[in-house]
Amino acid sequence: xxxxxxxxxxxxxxxxxxxxxxxxxxxxxxxxxxxxxxxxxxxxxxxxxxxxxxxxxxxxxxxxxxxxxxxxxxxxxxxxxxxxxxxxxxxxxxxxxxxxxxxxxxxxxxxxxxxxxxxxxxxxxxxxxxxxxxxxxxxxxxxxxxxxxxxxxxxxxxxxxxxxxxxxxxxxxxxxxxxxxxxxxxxxxxxxxxxxxxxxxxxxxxxxxxxxxxxxxxxxxxxxxxxxxxxxxxxxxxxxxxxxxxxxxxxxxxxxxxxxxxxxxxxxxxxxxxxxxxxxxxxxxxxxxxxxxxxxxxxxxxxxxxxxxxxxxxxxxxxxxxxxxxxxxxxxxxxxxxxxxxxxxxxxxxxxxxxxxxxxxxxxxxxxxxxxxxxxxxxxxxxxxxxxxxxxxxxxxxxxxxxxxxxxxxxxxxxxxxxxxxxxxxxxxxxxxx
Length: 434
Prior knowledge:
By secondary structure, this protein is of the alpha+beta class. The protein has helices at about 20-30, 85-95, 140-150, 215, 220-245, 255-270, 325-330, and strands at about 5, 10-15, 35-45, 55-65, 65-70, 75, 100, 105-110, 110-115, 115-120, 125, 130, 130-135, 140, 165-170, 180, 190-195, 205-210, 270-275, 280-285, 290, 295-300, 310, 345-350, 350-360, 360-370, 375-380, 385-390, 395, 400, 405-410, 415, 425-430. The strands form 9 sheets. A 9-stranded antiparallel beta sheet has the order 14-13-8-31-28-33-26-25-24. Strands 9-10-15-22-17-20 form a 6-stranded antiparallel beta sheet, with no helix packed on it.
């Protein structure tokens, strides 16, 4: 447990409290109008099943400029110094993020290797990784800050933010193709930011997105189609498992390799490849099987739950020992709903915002701001996540480049636009509805 030792005559220290927020409230109600409050507490690691909590210390500095918060897991030694000087000394020593008076805070990307390439996370909190808030002083895991900030401006303590990530598949065919999977709870929206011309020389990539309507009409019923598709997947899975069962470093002989290719082609002929270019938006409804293809880079917002059923994969599945095809086939959506035009919800000289998705649990806007323009934003009820697609976004003292993101806390008001009048900007803005 963090240990505060040494002289602490100028510091209000609360040891072993279960709730740092309540300790801060009590401190303020006791008449404190400034100074430094130090609170030890234990945070349950809700993202790790069966894991013990982690001992943390919250540092609350009140000055004429408002509240500053830092959270650390380090043992602290107090020196005989003024509260603000002691706060600065601890921050310099341990490099936590410093959250200032409920202002915007940058999201530090985390890189997660995948068999098909990598994911770049911005808000993920789970066993595979925990994302962090980042400031000039350092970085702190998102759940630490949420647990200690006096209210829910940065998201509710113990609950996940809308999940924001980048999908970055390898440009190699097959190797870079994602799982063909479906979700019963998790909704997703992709915005295409790059198509690797080594993989797609014409600049048009693809996503495997539901099933081929021409193939569907060749069957007497949907039930017959589902049955034939399941048979094709099971035949391919047998070949795939034979390859996966070979000793490490041993490649399949040509007979097995040729059988795998033929069975994979027969299976994939049931599905639809939807063309994708830079700027395209893909809304993935529940129960629609889908698989982003190699060399297509996207920004993704999704429901913050880890839930999927894998129908097929052209590599060894590392996260589970089975495919879920038989369980998924009866309920899978064969065709996506019709595409609808995006609703323009704001338009003014130099700025335009269109709603690219409105799911029951989150919404996303795409905002275009021309040189000299601004997009006004008021967040009385929820936080928002902003991710830059192109150009630069100025948010207070922050300047964000492409593929950089920021959390705007609940209660934030301001105008979003490029920091330089000569630039144009495209960014995505998401907020929760749960």
